[in-house]
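The data layer described in this paper is built around a simple, fixed record for each protein. Such a record has a labelled line for the sequence and another for the backbone structure tokens. For reference, a complete record is included directly beneath this paragraph.
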Amino acid sequence: MRVERVLEEAVRRGVVPGLAFGVVFADGRRHTLHLGQAQLEPEPVPLEEGFYFDLASLTKPLFTLKEVLRAVEEGLLDLDDPLSLHLPELLWLKDHPLKGVSLRALLAHTSGLPAWEAVYTWGEGERLRARLLQHPWPLGEPVYSDIGYMLLGLLLERVRNRPLDAFPLPPGLSFRPPRERAVATERCPWRGRVLRGEVHDENAFALGGVAGHAGLFGTLEGVLEELFAILQGRWLSRAALEEMLRPHGERLLSWERKRPGWQGGSLASERAFGHTGFTGVGVWVDPERGYAWALLTNAVHPTRHRPPIAPLRRAVGNLLASEAA
């Protein structure tokens, strides 16, 4: 595949230290590739099959969205429920802006919540959970929001009466991967070490290592199985998948739709969708052409100040589309 040459060159030029790439077709055919290093420092570790990547914001669609929709399928939630219906302590807070925000708006990033806040400086554990709900979040123009998914994580814990890291996960996905089989991310000045097998995202770390917006780890094989299930229409019920793929402004529920400037490549079909994560990971699904692909990298290792990865993602997406069309 021409894609292989592009990926080999990216590793050779140091765009990323290492990567795992895979494409899966609706009929079950798949092609995978592992290149480079899982870690450069403090000592080199070659990247092998079965290594876990920090999936960062892929946690949003692959875990949080899926679990919310499962709860809807079971009659525990409705997408148009206000958050306060399931987190009633919001009702005790006078004129709290979160009272009327719907689960649908949180999933689709249309709530108007801020994109991000350094909530890891507010405390940790239960204290931080309480402050997330009590804080008078300003609601402005819709933006992609980590805050919304942190709140959805709290909602899921309440509805299921268990912490997020106690939710069952399919093979190849984990919240607590074995360190020796994990791909390193950044040399974190805040924690004073190279991160390997622990979540890169500071806010997720302060929430116990797992949150609704980040904290999931996955192998290439585990991620491809999720994409394959989506392609085959068995990831969720047909009704839930149809609702997931209904446009909500510039996005679907959680997923990004194809639009100018997106990172899945301009040759993807109009029905294509995908998602990226800050650590250098991304997945894309093209149901019209019957394939999906994942590019998992350690682009922030040992520092986030590396060449941009977006051009590589677009190149891979366009090469795949031109060969599959």
